[in-house]
# Entry
Amino acid sequence: MINAFTGLWKTSGYFRFGIVAVVFAVVMVVLSFFSPYKPMESYAVAADAPPSLENWFGTTSRGQDLFWQMTFALRNSLAFGIITALLSRIIAIFVGMYSGYKGGWFDKVLMSVNDSFVIMPVLPILLLLNFLLRDQMNWFYMSLMMALLGWAWDARLIRSQVLSLKERVFSETAVFCGMPTRKIIFREHMPYVLPVLFSTTINNLLWSIGMEVTLSILGLTNLNNPTIGVVIFWANQHQAMISGSWWWVAAPVIVTVFVFTGFYLLSVSINEFIDPRTRLRMKGGAA
Amino acid sequence: MTFKHVFNKNFGKYLLGRVGQTIMVIIIGITITFIIPRLAPTNPVELKIQQMMVSGANIHPEAIKAFREAMNDIYGLKGTLFEQYVNFWSRLSRGDLGPSIFSFPRPATDIIMKAMPWTIGLLLSTSVISWIFGNLLGGLAGYQSNRRWTKWAELAANSIRPIPYYIFAFILLILFCFVWPLFPTSGAYDPGMDEHWLDPVFLLSVLHHTFLPALSLVLTGLGAWLLGMRALVSNIISEDYVQYAEVAGVKKKTILYQYVMRNAMLPQITGLGMSLGGIFSGALITEYVYGIPGMGQLSYRAIVGFDYSLIMGVSIFSIVGVSVAVLIVDLLYPIFDPRVRLN
# Structure
């Protein structure tokens, strides 16, 4: 584990950038617990101040310090994304692994449902749902809904892995030895699926944070709980771009770009590391 | 390749399967939009009445009762759940979504039909441009994988790819409307102009206003197509038939465009179909950010004005629109892939 880490750190610029982004995100999240202001406390600092040594990201028209607000926003957005990714993992793993392993009509039915979910445009459904349930909607229900709508593509990837694993000799041996299906799936096949699972988790995490931002920009979430999208929503509400306080939009945009790019490059570098062809190339052999 | 080659018996089977699946997606999607409002503890009619009461109007209880019944009738909330469901579909088939509350009594369908062309235009032009350029660049990058420019292109593509569409829209907005004001911040054309599509001045104004939103959609998509194509091409060029062609002295251009890219294009076509839903959500916010009068702007107006039939219409039209678009892309597939044509 430590060897893999140092190896990646030495060879991959993507990995180094990714780790820096993760450390940045963790530091922001930890800082949010030591914030001198409450998350949405207004007129705590001078309003509309551009970025300075005192207010690193500037302040909003409602007199909030953007740096401290972003620490809360990042914490809430990440928590939301992680919960959604974990919940949808549960569905994706079960559907993908059982469907791939069992095959037959079971597989056919599940996969046709799966494909419908892959094509289904998620945003319109979420728009309607949040529109009607705005007052009842808390972030947990929302991440549950997002998980119910966002598992399909990953289930397909996992299934395709299991399909090839099923044909391997060790699977047949396990069946002949009388190992129960559940054990074969989770003890024998799971380790092979883990790498795919890891990169799909990061992608799903980014997807769900992005969806939350989309809904927040349209004003469909709890607007008193700062997330990256909520900060942008308030900036739009106060016409930040037109009145000239561009930093109000720039702060969430820069943080998002940094964290999204970092997390994504982290998953790319780990994927490349797992792929044996790249490792060979790194050692100077023929790919 | 003739018409007969493409449309043989196997293609018919493929067509039937895909059309069937699309219909299923549409039915599931629309049924969900039917169920959600009925599961909600507050229905739109009650919300509207609440809103009227809050605004301080002193209304007679009898009037409210009459109003409630009239509204229930207009929004199809009368009768048992099954009757409502049947009624819902029969009204939908006539394109009747009820009047918009925001601009009463204009039908919601009417308003959506006016917004739709903007969204379709933006979506179609940007996804096609970004798909073509991304694949061309990706093909070249995969073929010349040891050149310096491919390393930079890969780095740029990898950094852009995870950034959501609307975040990119904000970046361009800050850079080119604020820091270096080259483009207008909002609207689809100069204020005070009439929509005369044949007038060159109007067209130029539209191009000027929509350039940045289009660019933000094209650039974000470009990264993903480039990386996908590069990976596919670098796998294919190590195959025997390509090396044989190289040894046989076939021109490099011919190898790249006709031997390698043609094969690599197939998964990319599937990818285009799959990504349309995502591009659609991205375009919605981009439109809203740049104030283009399409579906994105409309959703925002509907949400703020609590316009139930309008938001319902936006959801239903989007589900149908995206599913049909995906179907059309998928039906192009056999034209490029001889294997699908044969079996």
Observations:
- The mean pLDDT of chain A is 84.
- Chain A is about 75% helix and 0% strand.
- Residues 66-102 of chain A form the longest helix (37 residues).
- Chain A touches chain B through 46 residues (CB under 8 Å).
